[in-house]
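Per your request, structure below.
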């Protein structure tokens, strides 16, 4: 499984987006949207980038391309060349999750935890995060550590919390290592 390496990810994403590939450009918009992978938050730049590729992303999503489905969900969640619509974001996350897209599984956990576009449900958040965590996603692994430590949506289990924290930390997640 992979490790968290934001510097390398940033370099690879910038290189990939140079040729105008719609998926790469939309990922670039996504990281600028809220400041991920060492990119500074720049919503204006994120929207500009997304606007150049949103039609292609939507076309790919409608052709059942799981990554495009995830990115279209993100476009609706974050207002990237689409109006913010939390319920429509969930629709696209579900479609991508049905194709076993790890980040869609992760995002469905997030929306159930926060109650964004769906009724808040800690048990469903845990279920979605577990699916993403089992595929090696370090952030849901961290979140599972936290929910097991706190007993949120699951019965408190400190051994299980430690197991998930260690799994996430082994992938380079500093917050998990600290926990």
């Amino acid at each position: 499984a992979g490790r968290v390496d934001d510097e390398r990810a940033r370099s690879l994403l910038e290189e990939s987006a140079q040729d105008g590939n719609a998926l790469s450009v939309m990922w670039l918009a996504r990281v600028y949207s809220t400041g991920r992978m060492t990119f500074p938050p720049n919503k204006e730049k994120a929207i500009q980038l997304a606007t150049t590729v949103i039609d292609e992303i939507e076309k790919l999503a409608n052709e059942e391309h799981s990554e495009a489905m995830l990115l279209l969900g993100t476009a609706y969640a974050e207002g990237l060349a689409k109006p913010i619509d939390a319920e429509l974001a969930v629709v696209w996350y579900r479609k991508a999750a049905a194709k076993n897209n790890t980040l869609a599984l992760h995002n469905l956990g997030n929306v159930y935890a926060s109650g964004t576009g769906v009724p808040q449900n800690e048990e469903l958040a845990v279920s979605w995060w577990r699916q993403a965590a089992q595929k090696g996603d370090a952030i849901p692994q961290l979140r599972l550590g936290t929910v097991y430590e706190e007993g949120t949506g699951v019965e408190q289990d400190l051994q299980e919390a430690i197991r998930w924290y260690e799994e996430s930390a082994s992938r380079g997640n500093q917050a998990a290592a600290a926990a």
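The chain has ten helices and no strands.

Regards,
D.
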